[in-house]
């Protein structure tokens, strides 16, 4: 199970009525922060997320509306008594950016480990059981999309275990895939495990034009967070010029990617009420929704 | 006349219910920003101050709650089409800090001129007609207080000018202090000007313990903005440890400095409602008030 909190849904610049687009992912109390514009730490306070247990920060790109809040957040995490190292992952430019921050915040009680994602190389990072993939997209500076996959264990078939007279104290280890030597008989986990089951997949795509490669990257996501910087195709010229998407383009991406649900985010400051334009997305992909600041979403395994 | 806008009144860290302490000073449409924590630009938007006409930024010290918002604000000022150079003034450390920002925001359409105030040297800076002085105070990092003085012109005595048969077209130049040669007779401005008149003085003191030197620095201010990080003398141990003041100490400073009015600011996040404790200040200095985010104050010349 993954708990997600949409810390903000704004793009471009910090505004009075909307926090900048950012997502907090909570997996068993360990947290991943995705993007951190100015004010993200304030939104974290409103959502009472805490700071100490942020173990990983993912940055889509080094534009200020996705990065500047890190300057203060690094200090705030330090003030939360964190001493464990923190990992920051981002595209080309992230090492230089974090080095810049380190000049401004030279004394932190924890180490920062920065990983710069290479272009033209597959990127997979394991956070606990969660597999994180990154894909370079098309923006005015190096920018990546992220997808997250939490695999699901195969079902433990207790009736099979009972048939084989396996004492219950060995069940957990077998479920974890470890063979068992029971009085000279080797019990293979395969003998007591059900079929493979799909895990939880969700994706986060922002600050890019729609690309075919994104469609493959987000394929079959239970949930797609996608930028809808502009509310309608009428603004396509701006979307093209600034390397962003319209609501229609985001919905088309969700459709092509066979996603189950789309949450739009990263709204231009010019959009006062994104809900006024949701039809532009729903006419293409009915399960389209407007992201709301401080919205919580719980993702569970789909099948039984 | 000076128009002041209290952009925020919080100290320590950005919080949901209070912007970080910052002041915007508007003199004839030219603006001075004093301190810039995370979120200051959002408060500027709420107050519709505009960004392009910020000509001068004064920083009290380089702690994050007074500085971090500059990272995004410099870009936002750039996006406002400003091309005129911008001056940033601050204490020891400001040059390094701004150099750090320049790494993170390398492309701005205007030049930044940084002035680092030297310790043990008088500092006076002239912004239009406003004289700005700085004083090193006592904090855990180099920190300065600022005072502002707008002199008032002497009154033009029109009855004297009429007695001397000076045509009205020369009055303005005489009022500005220029002598006049009228048909061979030299008219000295002293002949048509009234007595010296007091100008507008206000001061801004934050992140320091009270000092005797501050009392002299703020002397006779029409208005003193002073930090009241802690609400009562019960917190004196914290005030001493963290180099801050209590409400009582700020009020005592206003009293000793013969100020006309005190506005408290830079409240600790632990103070939910500073107004609950205003008596702690008013018992010492009756013209004490709690600063409010987005409050506007107009300072006019006192005497006629």
TrEMBL record, chains A, B:
What cofactor requirement does the entry state?
Zn(2+)
Entry keyword annotation includes Ligase: no
Keywords in alphabetical order, please. Endonuclease, Hydrolase, Metal-binding, Nuclease, tRNA processing, Zinc
User: What is the uppermost EC class here?
Assistant: hydrolase
Report a single Gene Ontology molecular function: zinc ion binding
CDD domains on file: RNaseZ_ZiPD-like_MBL-fold
> Which superkingdom heads the taxonomic lineage of this protein's source?
Bacteria
Q: What is its EC number?
A: 3.1.26.11
Residues involved in Zn(2+) 2 binding:
65-66, 207, 266
Q: Which reaction does it catalyse?
A: Endonucleolytic cleavage of RNA, removing extra 3' nucleotides from tRNA precursor, generating 3' termini of tRNAs. A 3'-hydroxy group is left at the tRNA terminus and a 5'-phosphoryl group is left at the trailer molecule
SUPFAM superfamilies, A to Z: Metallo-hydrolase/oxidoreductase
Checking HAMAP family in the record gives: RNase_Z_BN
Q: What does it do?
A: Zinc phosphodiesterase, which displays some tRNA 3'-processing endonuclease activity. Probably involved in tRNA maturation, by removing a 3'-trailer from precursor tRNA.
Task: Tell me the protein family, please.
Answer: Belongs to the RNase Z family.
Name listed for the protein in its UniProt record? Ribonuclease Z
Lineage, top ranks: Bacteria, Bacillati, Bacillota, Clostridia, Eubacteriales
Q: Which gene encodes it?
A: rnz
């Amino acid at each position: 199970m993954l708990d997600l909190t949409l810390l903000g849904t704004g793009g471009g610049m910090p505004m009075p009525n909307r926090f900048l687009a950012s997502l907090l992912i909570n997996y068993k109390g360990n947290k991943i922060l995705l993007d951190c514009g100015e004010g993200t730490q304030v939104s974290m306070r409103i959502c009472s997320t805490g700071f100490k247990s942020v173990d990983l920060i993912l940055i889509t790109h080094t534009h200020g509306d996705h990065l500047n809040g890190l300057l203060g957040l690094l200090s705030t995490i330090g003030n939360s008594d964190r001493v464990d190292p923190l990992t920051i992952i981002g595209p080309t430019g992230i090492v230089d950016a974090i080095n810049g921050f380190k000049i401004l915040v030279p004394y932190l009680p924890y180490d920062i480990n920065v990983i710069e994602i290479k272009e033209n190389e597959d990127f997979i990072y394991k956070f606990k059981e969660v597999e994180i993939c990154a894909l370079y997209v098309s923006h005015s500076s190096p920018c990546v999309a992220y997808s997250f996959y939490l695999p699901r264990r195969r079902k433990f078939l207790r009736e099979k275990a009972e048939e084989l007279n396996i004492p219950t104290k060995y069940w957990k280890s077998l479920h974890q895939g470890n063979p068992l030597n029971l009085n000279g008989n080797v019990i293979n986990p395969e003998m007591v495990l059900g079929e493979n089951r799909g895990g939880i997949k969700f994706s986060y795509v922002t600050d890019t034009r729609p690309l075919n490669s994104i469609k493959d990257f987000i394929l079959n996501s239970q949930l797609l967070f996608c930028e809808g910087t502009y509310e309608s195709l009428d603004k396509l010229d701006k979307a093209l010029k600034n390397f962003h998407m319209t609501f229609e383009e985001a919905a088309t991406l969700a459709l092509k990617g066979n996603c189950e649900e789309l949450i739009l985010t990263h709204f231009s400051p010019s959009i006062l009420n994104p809900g006024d334009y949701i039809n532009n997305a729903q006419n293409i992909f009915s399960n389209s929704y407007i992201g709301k600041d401080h919205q919580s979403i719980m993702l569970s395994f789909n099948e039984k």
